[in-house]
Design a protein that fits this description.
The protein is α/β, with parallel strands linked by helices and 257 residues long. The chain has a single domain, classed as Alpha-Beta Barrel (TIM Barrel). 44% of the residues lie in helices and 15% in strands. It has ten helices and eight strands. The protein has an eight-stranded parallel β-barrel, surrounded by five helices.
């Protein structure tokens, strides 16, 4: 049986608390009426700011929507002021943790060693890492695939067994008017999937695409991705539902194949 089509949304820090709460309520109502989501054919997760997580958990209670965190501490509980541990996130019901986003790497100096420690911390706590990987400069697709697979291996080094969601986000496409070309995306995502398939400890893992992803893209990518990771295009709940509809159509196509 094919797995569900995955759609993730990261709100970054665009929304204030009240705006985020209103968005959660709107999306919760809409997805509660979306058959593919309620049936499990499409899996939706939402990643708000740390302070917005409790409100998101409340809003999506009783729906299949899962909630994630935009980061996670690489350290256990202890004298690490300002950090939020994976164990505490898991305790309140967080299911996913975004790790290694290009902005964390660029703005906060996170290395592959730091990312690997955060992946390990999440997996140890039973949280699924949403591991962001992608080349910084625009490269030929084959070169981008090689660089991204190398990054994947570095970011998974010494991590405990468990599935991950790998979000391929070419840095040069983040915030751009258009996503990366379809042929480029498919070559890299196929390489990432092959790399994961070669790792028995990563059974059940998925590969999704982010980087100016929005309505219409999933239809072009088809089976070459397991879903999409949305940013600003999901700020409009109507656009998010459009992507969920496209995910539903893809899931139905896979089921009938």
């Amino acid at each position: 049986m094919p797995g569900p089509v995955i759609v993730g949304v990261s709100l970054k820090t665009y929304f204030g608390h009240e705006q985020a709460a209103a968005w959660f309520a709107d999306v919760a109502q809409r997805v509660g009426e979306h058959f593919a989501v309620t049936a499990g054919d499409v899996r939706l997760f939402v990643i708000p700011t740390y302070l917005q997580i409790p409100a998101a958990l409340d809003a999506f209670a009783g729906t299949p929507v899962r909630v994630g965190a935009q980061d996670v501490s690489a350290f256990p509980a202890g004298a690490f002021t300002g950090e939020v541990t994976a164990t505490e996130l898991a305790e309140i019901g967080v299911a996913y943790a975004e790790v290694g986003h290009a902005e964390r790497r660029r703005l906060f100096g996170e290395t592959d060693e730091v990312v690997a420690a955060k992946v390990a911390a999440a997996l140890d706590a039973g949280i699924v890492p949403v591991l962001c990987v992608g080349e910084t400069d625009r490269l030929a697709a084959a070169d981008a695939a090689a660089a991204t697979v190398a990054q994947l291996h570095a970011d998974l080094e010494d991590s405990p067994a468990g599935p991950v969601i790998v979000a391929y986000e070419p840095v040069w496409a983040i915030g751009a008017p258009q996503p990366a070309p379809t042929a480029h995306i498919t070559e890299v995502t196929r390489a990432l999937r092959a790399a994961l398939d070669a790792l028995p400890a990563r059974a059940g893992s998925s590969v999704i695409y982010g980087g100016s992803a929005g309505p219409g893209l999933l239809t072009h990518l088809g089976d070459d991705v397991d879903g999409l990771f949305l940013g600003r295009f999901a700020h409009d709940p109507h656009a998010l539902i459009t992507v969920l509809d496209e995910a539903s159509a893809l899931a139905a196509k896979r089921e009938s194949a």
